[in-house]
Amino acid sequence: AKEHATAGASIWRWASSDEGIAPDVVMAAAGMAPTNETLAAIDLLEEDVPDLRVRMVNVMDLMRLESRRSHPHALETEPFNALFTADKPVVFSFHGYPSAIHQLVSARQNPTRFHVRGYVEEGITTTPFDMLIRNGTSRYQLAIEAIRRSGRGETREGARAMDRYLLMIEDHREYIAEHGHDSEDITSWRWNRA
Protein backbone atom coordinates (compact mmCIF):
# COMPACT_ATOMS: atom_id res chain seq x y z
CA ALA A 1 0.00 0.00 0.00
CA LYS A 2 2.86 2.37 0.82
CA GLU A 3 4.55 1.61 -2.51
CA HIS A 4 1.28 2.21 -4.37
CA ALA A 5 0.65 5.49 -2.54
CA THR A 6 4.19 6.65 -3.28
CA ALA A 7 3.91 5.67 -6.95
CA GLY A 8 0.54 7.41 -7.30
CA ALA A 9 -0.50 4.86 -9.95
CA SER A 10 0.31 1.19 -10.29
CA ILE A 11 -0.76 -2.13 -11.75
CA TRP A 12 -2.69 -4.29 -9.32
CA ARG A 13 -1.31 -7.65 -10.42
CA TRP A 14 -3.49 -9.53 -7.94
CA ALA A 15 -6.57 -8.23 -9.83
CA SER A 16 -5.08 -8.58 -13.33
CA SER A 17 -5.23 -11.55 -15.65
CA ASP A 18 -2.65 -10.44 -18.24
CA GLU A 19 0.17 -12.24 -16.36
CA GLY A 20 2.57 -9.45 -17.31
CA ILE A 21 1.86 -10.05 -21.01
CA ALA A 22 0.20 -7.43 -23.18
CA PRO A 23 -3.43 -7.18 -22.03
CA ASP A 24 -6.45 -7.11 -24.32
CA VAL A 25 -7.83 -4.21 -22.30
CA VAL A 26 -6.69 -2.06 -19.39
CA MET A 27 -9.25 -1.41 -16.67
CA ALA A 28 -8.28 1.67 -14.65
CA ALA A 29 -9.91 3.48 -11.76
CA ALA A 30 -9.47 6.48 -9.51
CA GLY A 31 -11.54 6.80 -6.34
CA MET A 32 -13.07 4.31 -3.92
CA ALA A 33 -16.43 3.54 -5.59
CA PRO A 34 -14.95 3.46 -9.12
CA THR A 35 -12.20 1.11 -7.94
CA ASN A 36 -14.70 -1.20 -6.24
CA GLU A 37 -16.90 -1.31 -9.35
CA THR A 38 -13.90 -1.89 -11.60
CA LEU A 39 -12.83 -4.83 -9.44
CA ALA A 40 -16.39 -6.20 -9.57
CA ALA A 41 -16.34 -5.80 -13.38
CA ILE A 42 -13.05 -7.71 -13.57
CA ASP A 43 -14.59 -10.43 -11.41
CA LEU A 44 -17.53 -10.70 -13.85
CA LEU A 45 -15.19 -10.82 -16.84
CA GLU A 46 -13.07 -13.54 -15.24
CA GLU A 47 -16.20 -15.65 -14.87
CA ASP A 48 -17.87 -14.92 -18.21
CA VAL A 49 -14.98 -14.17 -20.61
CA PRO A 50 -12.08 -15.99 -18.92
CA ASP A 51 -9.67 -15.75 -21.86
CA LEU A 52 -9.86 -11.93 -21.88
CA ARG A 53 -6.53 -10.61 -20.62
CA VAL A 54 -7.26 -7.67 -18.30
CA ARG A 55 -4.81 -5.36 -16.58
CA MET A 56 -6.03 -3.43 -13.54
CA VAL A 57 -4.43 -0.02 -12.93
CA ASN A 58 -5.34 2.04 -9.89
CA VAL A 59 -4.59 5.76 -9.85
CA MET A 60 -4.27 7.70 -6.61
CA ASP A 61 -2.52 10.80 -7.94
CA LEU A 62 -4.33 12.08 -11.03
CA MET A 63 -1.38 14.31 -11.89
CA ARG A 64 0.57 11.14 -12.77
CA LEU A 65 -1.62 11.03 -15.92
CA GLU A 66 -0.65 14.53 -17.05
CA SER A 67 2.13 15.26 -19.52
CA ARG A 68 5.55 15.67 -17.89
CA ARG A 69 5.99 19.08 -19.50
CA SER A 70 2.74 20.20 -17.83
CA HIS A 71 3.19 18.85 -14.29
CA PRO A 72 6.20 17.76 -12.23
CA HIS A 73 4.35 14.70 -10.80
CA ALA A 74 3.51 13.35 -14.25
CA LEU A 75 4.94 10.04 -15.38
CA GLU A 76 7.50 9.97 -18.15
CA THR A 77 6.30 8.28 -21.34
CA GLU A 78 7.94 4.91 -20.66
CA PRO A 79 6.52 4.39 -17.14
CA PHE A 80 3.12 5.65 -18.34
CA ASN A 81 3.11 3.10 -21.16
CA ALA A 82 4.30 0.40 -18.76
CA LEU A 83 1.04 0.96 -16.87
CA PHE A 84 -1.43 1.66 -19.66
CA THR A 85 0.44 0.19 -22.67
CA ALA A 86 1.05 2.30 -25.76
CA ASP A 87 -1.86 1.04 -27.82
CA LYS A 88 -4.44 -1.01 -25.90
CA PRO A 89 -7.91 0.31 -25.04
CA VAL A 90 -8.28 1.72 -21.53
CA VAL A 91 -11.63 1.69 -19.72
CA PHE A 92 -11.19 4.29 -16.98
CA SER A 93 -13.71 4.70 -14.17
CA PHE A 94 -13.65 7.99 -12.29
CA HIS A 95 -15.90 9.66 -9.69
CA GLY A 96 -15.67 13.05 -11.39
CA TYR A 97 -16.36 14.38 -14.84
CA PRO A 98 -14.91 12.17 -17.63
CA SER A 99 -13.59 15.28 -19.39
CA ALA A 100 -11.11 15.79 -16.53
CA ILE A 101 -9.35 12.51 -17.31
CA HIS A 102 -9.53 13.15 -21.05
CA GLN A 103 -7.85 16.51 -20.48
CA LEU A 104 -5.11 14.95 -18.36
CA VAL A 105 -4.23 12.27 -20.95
CA SER A 106 -4.69 14.50 -24.00
CA ALA A 107 -0.92 14.92 -24.57
CA ARG A 108 -0.28 11.17 -24.24
CA GLN A 109 0.25 8.81 -27.17
CA ASN A 110 -3.09 7.83 -28.75
CA PRO A 111 -5.32 9.45 -26.08
CA THR A 112 -8.52 8.41 -27.89
CA ARG A 113 -7.99 4.86 -26.62
CA PHE A 114 -9.00 6.12 -23.14
CA HIS A 115 -12.72 5.49 -22.66
CA VAL A 116 -13.65 7.29 -19.46
CA ARG A 117 -16.77 6.61 -17.46
CA GLY A 118 -17.65 9.10 -14.75
CA TYR A 119 -20.17 11.51 -13.35
CA VAL A 120 -22.51 12.81 -16.06
CA GLU A 121 -25.04 14.46 -13.73
CA GLU A 122 -27.61 11.69 -13.91
CA GLY A 123 -29.81 10.69 -11.00
CA ILE A 124 -30.94 12.54 -7.94
CA THR A 125 -32.62 10.68 -5.10
CA THR A 126 -32.02 7.01 -5.72
CA THR A 127 -29.86 4.16 -4.44
CA PRO A 128 -26.05 4.26 -4.54
CA PHE A 129 -25.81 1.50 -7.15
CA ASP A 130 -28.56 3.04 -9.25
CA MET A 131 -26.53 6.28 -9.32
CA LEU A 132 -23.65 4.25 -10.73
CA ILE A 133 -25.91 2.77 -13.41
CA ARG A 134 -27.39 6.17 -14.31
CA ASN A 135 -23.88 7.55 -14.77
CA GLY A 136 -22.60 4.54 -16.71
CA THR A 137 -20.10 3.48 -14.05
CA SER A 138 -21.60 0.25 -12.72
CA ARG A 139 -19.70 -3.03 -12.84
CA TYR A 140 -22.01 -4.22 -15.62
CA GLN A 141 -21.42 -1.17 -17.81
CA LEU A 142 -17.67 -1.28 -17.22
CA ALA A 143 -17.58 -4.97 -18.15
CA ILE A 144 -19.63 -4.28 -21.29
CA GLU A 145 -17.25 -1.47 -22.25
CA ALA A 146 -14.23 -3.74 -21.72
CA ILE A 147 -15.76 -6.45 -23.92
CA ARG A 148 -16.63 -3.97 -26.66
CA ARG A 149 -13.30 -2.14 -26.61
CA SER A 150 -11.29 -5.37 -26.60
CA GLY A 151 -13.12 -6.58 -29.71
CA ARG A 152 -14.67 -9.50 -27.85
CA GLY A 153 -18.19 -8.19 -28.39
CA GLU A 154 -18.19 -9.97 -31.75
CA THR A 155 -17.60 -13.37 -30.14
CA ARG A 156 -20.41 -15.62 -28.90
CA GLU A 157 -18.95 -15.58 -25.40
CA GLY A 158 -18.63 -11.78 -25.33
CA ALA A 159 -22.09 -11.16 -26.79
CA ARG A 160 -23.63 -13.57 -24.29
CA ALA A 161 -21.89 -11.83 -21.39
CA MET A 162 -23.01 -8.37 -22.56
CA ASP A 163 -26.62 -9.58 -22.87
CA ARG A 164 -26.40 -11.03 -19.36
CA TYR A 165 -25.11 -7.74 -17.94
CA LEU A 166 -27.87 -5.74 -19.63
CA LEU A 167 -30.42 -8.11 -18.08
CA MET A 168 -28.79 -7.66 -14.68
CA ILE A 169 -29.16 -3.89 -15.01
CA GLU A 170 -32.87 -4.31 -15.79
CA ASP A 171 -33.27 -6.74 -12.87
CA HIS A 172 -31.65 -4.15 -10.62
CA ARG A 173 -34.02 -1.41 -11.78
CA GLU A 174 -37.02 -3.64 -11.08
CA TYR A 175 -35.63 -4.59 -7.68
CA ILE A 176 -35.12 -1.01 -6.49
CA ALA A 177 -38.52 0.04 -7.83
CA GLU A 178 -40.08 -2.67 -5.69
CA HIS A 179 -37.82 -2.54 -2.60
CA GLY A 180 -36.34 0.98 -2.56
CA HIS A 181 -32.77 -0.18 -1.91
CA ASP A 182 -29.94 -2.02 -3.65
CA SER A 183 -29.99 -5.81 -3.60
CA GLU A 184 -27.72 -7.74 -1.28
CA ASP A 185 -25.76 -9.28 -4.16
CA ILE A 186 -24.61 -5.72 -4.94
CA THR A 187 -24.07 -4.43 -1.41
CA SER A 188 -22.35 -7.58 -0.11
CA TRP A 189 -19.97 -8.08 -3.05
CA ARG A 190 -16.33 -8.41 -2.00
CA TRP A 191 -13.20 -9.37 -3.90
CA ASN A 192 -12.51 -12.93 -2.86
CA ARG A 193 -9.97 -14.30 -5.31
CA ALA A 194 -6.55 -15.11 -3.95
Question: Could you walk me through the main structural features you see in this protein, from its secondary elements to its overall organization?
Answer:
With 194 residues, the chain is an alpha/beta fold. Helices cover 44% and strands 12% of the residues. The chain has eight helices and five strands, in the order H-E-E-H-E-H-E-H-E-H-H-H-H. Strand 4, helix 4 and strand 5 (114-117) form a beta-alpha-beta unit. Helix 2 (32-48) crosses helix 6 (139-150). The mean pLDDT is 93.
Give me some keywords for this one.
single chain, 194 residues, five-stranded mixed sheet, globular
Quote the average pLDDT.
93
Gross geometry: globular
Low-confidence stretches: none
| Strand percent estimate | 5-15%
Class from helix and strand fractions: alpha/beta
Query: What distance separates the N and C termini?
Result: 17 Å
SSE order, as H and E?
Answer: HEEHEHEHEHHHH
User: Radius of gyration from the CA trace?
Assistant: 16 Å
Helix proportion: 40-55%
Please state how the strands of the largest beta sheet are arranged side by side.
1-3-2-4-5
Number of helices: 8
Q: Give a count of the beta strands, DSSP E runs of length 2 or more.
A: 5
Largest sheet: 5 strands, mixed
Concise overview:
Helices cover 44% and strands 12% of the residues. The chain has 8 helices and 5 strands; from the N terminus they run αββαβαβαβαααα.
Q: What is the fold's blueprint, element by element?
A:
Layout: H1 2-7, E1 9-11, E2 25-30, H2 32-48, E3 54-59, H3 77-84, E4 90-94, H4 98-105, E5 114-117, H5 128-134, H6 139-150, H7 156-179, H8 184-187
Parallel strand pairs: 2-3, 2-4, 4-5
Antiparallel strand pairs: 1-3
Helix pairs in contact: 2-6, 6-7
